[in-house]
Amino acid sequence: MRIVGREAECARLAGMLDEARAGHGCSVVLRGEPGIGKTALLDHLAENADGCTVVRATGVEFESELALASLSELIGPLFEVLRELPARYADVLMALVPQKIDDSPAPAVAGGGRHAIYAATLALLTAAAARRPLLCLIDDAHWIDDVSAAALLFTARRLLADPALIVFATRDVPEFDAPGIGTLRLEGLNEQASLQLLARNANVPALVGARLAALTMGNPLALLELPRVLPLESAAGLSELVEPLPTTKLLQRAFAASLVSMSTRQRQALLVCAAAGSAELEVVARALGALGIHLAALDEGTVSGLVQITGRTVTFRHPLIRSAVYSQAGPGERWQAHAALADACTSPKDADRRAWHLACASVGPDEQVAAALVATADRARRHGGIVAQAAALERAAELTGEPVPRARRICAAATIWSAAGALDHSEALLDQAEALAGDNVSARIEVLGDRAYHAVLRGRTGDVFDALVAEAAGAGPEDRLAAGRVLSLAMNAPLARWDVAATLEVCTKVMTLTAPDGHPNPSFPKGAVRLALAQVLAGQAAGAELARECVAVCERHVPNGACAELAEVLMYVEDYDLARRMIDHDVAASRAVGDIALLGYGLRRRAQLEIRVGRPLTAYSDALECAGLADAMAQPTTIAASRATLAMVSAVLGRADDCSAHAREAMRLCPDDLETEARVRYAVGLVALAGGRIDDAVVELRRADTVLRAVVEPAVVPVAADLAEALVRAGRPDEARLVLDRLDAAVAATGRRGRRAAALRCRALLARGAGAGPLFDAALEAHRGVDEPLERARTLLCQGQWLRRSRRRQDAYQPLAASLEVFESAEAKLWAEQARHELTVLGLRTVPSAGRPDLGVLTPQEWRIAWAAAQGRTSREIAAEVLLSVRTVDYHLGNVYRKLGVSSRRALIRQLGGSAELPA
């Protein structure tokens, strides 16, 4: 039947479907109030999807807390495609499809399971689209569970070159946010279309129809439903509708009225169906039988069109009918219906439904039901269903009678809610848990640990610092390890303000609690890693020794960021090879399990390492991925840290505007975090120095240096030498000497070879006449002991500048040419411009390295793909890493080739200076 009054919307959707058939993937969100016609548009699109595979899923209000319920419905018809996927994807999804009804364990994707689900969903839908154009329809998207919604939105944003169209239909509510996806908003029908719809379905006089169209504001479902329950043969039938009402209220009134004439048995039967959600018909039948009701009791509902029995399912004509049936029932009737449904859920695949039905049928504490919900939460965890896991744990806590166990379950729920971004709700739960914990020390420590974690996420660890220290001090022998874990979070407060003494004090107490023998505790190696960091910051040689002792323990521990934390310490002490081994361990482990938090944590530190060892292009790729992951986690401190890293990478690459933009964003998110401030001001100052904006460089580098005054370790944020150089170039040699005196003292305390070389370079800049020569030679000799090619190139640049100004033009050429080669290879444009200028002054004509692209012409996504291709990765390998389809990777590569003026991967590798071996 032709849809009424939606010609423009139908044309737009038809156009998108044609684009999908042509291989241009797209997606859209239909938004509008209940009854506005979203489902009708989906039906119309499906009816006209000739030559396409059509798959559908519908969110159900009562199932929004069942992890992956909607995704399971969607992928069921794609079972044959699923079986052909690579094992790493098939294993993740196989347990979800309806055909698999045994009780075998779900794939273990704990902690980061959500990322694995995303990748597997993308792989499945793009594989299905490769067989035949795919139309994927998601109705009532605001009610689908969180991980299904996230996986489908993740996939929808990546369908650029796949023959697929994904359409989400949702009420216009904030619960379903779809950034990056276009919106088609549905409004009410105009009067003409409203009258046309009424004439098709009811015998309503024209004047009455016009009035009804105005009162319903053209809502199609209201226009269809109200004539069923109101006497509209004359205007008198509208007497109680004196003004426009919210459509939901109008429809609920209409649907409730249709229930009045039904018998008690018939209403009970409909109530069971409403409470059952999308459960199979046999489950509904068993539940009805337990209540002494035959399935035939649904006949009146089917005759009146309220429900429809299709195959193995019972569906309501509209979700508002389901809501009306459920809300019209009394509490006792609802409990009875849920209890019958719980008994009817006998299959292992219905374990989660059974647990929730039992919970809905419970009116007081019940440990058995609570335990069933804990098991449901664990299954949700394995699939990455964060909201489902948190909701199950919270309800389990409500059904727990004893105060301390209840407090612990509330804490567990609060932790997961915080991971889902619901920090306010999580903190409200912790208030309950604290009251329940009472004088139980271990429970109080657990609550405090969660509060500390929230403080870290909000960047306000100082708010709970005193409480953390006090609680840990009162811990008994049986709680020492737990107290140490909690207290270790307290180090973030003094560290955020670079208070080295307080950081060292906290970390020493943590080590005393968790590893009193002084060696890393295999159960909690982070305690030793953090003490090593504090000792290194304080300039204590014991820090490097403890860090190296932690290596083997961290590598054996379940990946949780300990290796990445340790890598940062090893980087400061210039053990770059070992630092890389630690970071690569955590990055590889996080990719294997899909843990996006751990992956972002590792990538940020690897980007910092790549900068130190002179590979800023590789650092840029890692920093971009890290920033994308941080945005997905939506935690201010994580985003700020990623932006600070991008600011530093941009500074080394000479991209001043990008550096400033990233720095501003980092400071906006964490304005009181001195650790972030030191790093971003150093980045902004460094790019100013490279660009010859000396006064700006002095201002920013001075601020960073002031913030870092309590840090002895000179390699943490290596600002001192750059500040000294800026001061020399600003004509302020006395101030430069004071800075260098402090740097020399720090180098003497720590033995950092790279910082010694930088200090000698600055001393050479201060020297007069021939006295600079031996200092430059000594600096270059010091550089030999540490892998910092960009720092060595800067020394060569300064030496070449001095030689040219000393009229030793022939001697100046070699260091200037050598520095230019390094800077161009690293894409350090501003330093390269300085070297090129010096060579030009010598009378040598130089041009930028042939064919080297400007990074600015590529989008971040294009850059990551281009750089991966330049390292020799295939499109399939790149797709797995950046979580795109192979077709979309090739689409982006096509854009890269066009923008850079190349026609092959061989040429791309040459342009980007990648590490791939070129075939002969």
Task: List the main descriptive attributes of the protein structure presented here.
920 residues; mainly alpha; Rossmann fold; 6 domains; five-stranded parallel sheet; two-stranded antiparallel sheet; 47 helices; 7 strands
Give the helices and strands, then pairings.
Blueprint: H1 7-21, E1 26-31, H2 38-47, E2 53-58, H3 69-75, H4 79-82, H5 87-94, H6 113-131, E3 134-139, H7 146-156, E4 164-170, E5 182-185, H8 191-201, H9 206-215, H10 220-229, H11 247-259, H12 264-276, H13 281-290, H14 299-303, E6 307-310, E7 313-316, H15 319-328, H16 331-344, H17 351-360, H18 367-382, H19 386-398, H20 403-419, H21 423-437, H22 441-458, H23 465-473, H24 480-488, H25 492-496, H26 500-514, H27 526-537, H28 542-556, H29 562-572, H30 576-593, H31 596-612, H32 616-633, H33 636-653, H34 656-669, H35 674-690, H36 694-707, H37 720-729, H38 733-750, H39 753-766, H40 772-783, H41 789-805, H42 809-826, H43 829-841, H44 860-870, H45 875-882, H46 886-900, H47 905-912
Parallel strand pairs: 1-4, 1-5, 2-3, 3-4
Antiparallel strand pairs: 6-7
Helix pairs in contact: 3-7, 5-6, 6-7, 8-9, 10-11, 11-15, 12-13, 12-15, 12-16, 13-16, 16-17, 17-18, 18-19, 19-20, 20-21, 20-22, 21-22, 22-23, 22-24, 23-24, 24-26, 26-27, 27-28, 27-29, 28-29, 29-30, 29-31, 30-31, 31-32, 31-33, 32-33, 32-44, 33-34, 33-35, 34-35, 35-36, 36-37, 37-38, 37-39, 38-39, ...
InterPro entries: AAA_16 (IPR041664), P-loop_NTPase (IPR027417), Sig_transdc_resp-reg_C-effctor (IPR016032), TPR-like_helical_dom_sf (IPR011990), Tscrpt_reg_LuxR_C (IPR000792), WH-like_DNA-bd_sf (IPR036388)
Domain HTH luxR-type: 851-916
Protein name: Transcriptional regulator
